[in-house]
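Question: what's this shape?

___
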Amino acid sequence: MAEASTKQLEQKLGFWDLQGSAIGQIIGAGIMSLLPAAIGFTGRSVVFSFIIAAVITCAGAIPVIFLTSCVRLRGGAYTQMGLMAGKTFAGMSVITTLLGQFGNAMMGLSLAAYVRPLFGWPESSEKWIALVVLLVFYVLNLMGIDAFAKIQNALVVVLIGSLVMFGVMGITKVQWGTYFSNEDGYYMMNGVMGMCQAAGLLTFATGGATMVIGLSAECKNPVRDIPLVVITSTLFVACMYAILAFVAAGILPVPEIGNSLVNVANHILPTPLYYVFIIGGAGCALASTLNNGLASGTKPIMAMCDDGWLPASFAALNKKKVPYKILSLSIAIAVIATLSGLNVSTLGNLSLVITGVTGAIIAVRTAAIPKILPEQWAKSKFKVSQGVLNIMAFIALAGSLFSTYMNASSLSGGLLIFNIAMIVVAFIFGVVKGKTVDMQVSYDDA
C-alpha cells in the first residue's frame, strides 16, 4: 500500500485500554526525580503542592475534555489545533510533534539509568541499553494496536502494584508526630510561594493524560471514553502521588532525601522488594510512557500526511494497521538523539515553551466550540452554558500560562532561546507551507 489514511485504522480500544494508556503516560520519569526536587522547595507540605498541581493539570485539560466530548479527533492534537485555530497553527503543530519525538530518547535513557546499576554495568553502557530498549518497543509497536494495549495494561498493573507497595511499606515508618510541625524548618519551608513553585514543577509529573487523544482514531467510543479517561486518570494518579509524597517526605529528614525516590525506597524496603520497586516502579513507569508515546505519537503525523504537510506515502500501513514508516522515523529520531550525547534534561526541555504557547492558543479557542461544532456541541454530555464555557476557557488559559511560565523559568538561556527560535520556525513553516496545503480537518462524529 503506497499511502493510507487515519480512516483506515481499526477502532479497537475501549475505556480500560485508554485508562492504561493515560496512566502509563502520566507516571513516567517525573515522579522519581521531580518529587524530591519539589520537596526541596516546600518540604513536607509537598502533599498540598500535588493537590494544586492536579487542579492546574485538570484546568489545562479542559479544552481536550470539551472538544473530545463532541467528535473523534483522528489526528489527535494536530486535528485539535487545526479545528480550533486554523491552518497556520496546525502547521506549527507539525514542528511541535516532530520535536516531541525526542522525548522517546529521554525515556530510553532514563530507563537505562535506573536499570544499569542493578546489574553493576558501567555507566558507559547506558547509551547502548537505551538503544536496545528503543528497538524492543519499536518491534512491539509494529505488532499492532492490540499488542500495544496488552503490553501497556500489563506494564501499568505492575507499575501501580510497585507504587502501592512503596506506599504501604512506607506509611508505617512515617514520623507522624513531627510531620506537620515546622520545628525543624522543613514544613512550608518557603511559605505559600514555595508550595506554589513546587506545584508548578509537579504539573510535569501530573500531566500527560491528554496524550490519549492521539489514539482517538482507534477508540471504540472516543466521545464518551476520552473525556472520562483524562479526568479520572489525572485525579487517580494525583491521589497516588500525594500518598507517595506523604511517605517520601515523612521518613527521612528532608536534607537526606536526595534527588531521587530511590534513596527513600532503599531505606524502607528490604533488598528483594527494593529491586522490585526499581524494576516494577521506575522501570515500568518509563517503559509504559515510551510505549504510549510510540503508539499515540504516530497518528497526528498520519493526519499531517493526509493533508499534505508531509508526503502522503509516508503514512503507509503494514498488515497490522501500523504506520510503520512514521514509527520508524520516530525511532530513528530517538536513536540519533541517544547517540548525540544530549542529556535527559535537555531532551525533555526542547519544546516546553512552544508546547505551552500552542496550549494557550487552544485554551483561548475553547470558548468558540459551540460556533465551530454547533450540532456536535448540542449533543455533548459535557455541554454547558456559554458563560460557564467562557469561565472554563479562562481557567484553562490561566493554568496553561502558569505551567508554561514555571517550566520556562527553569530553562537555561540556551534552551530558552532554542524554544523561542522553534516558535518562530514553526510559525514560518505554517505560513509558507500552508499556501500549498489543502487541509481537511480530520475529525468525525462518533
Notes: The chain has a mean pLDDT of 86. The longest strand covers residues 71-73. The radius of gyration is 21 Å. The beta strands are 71-73, 443-445.
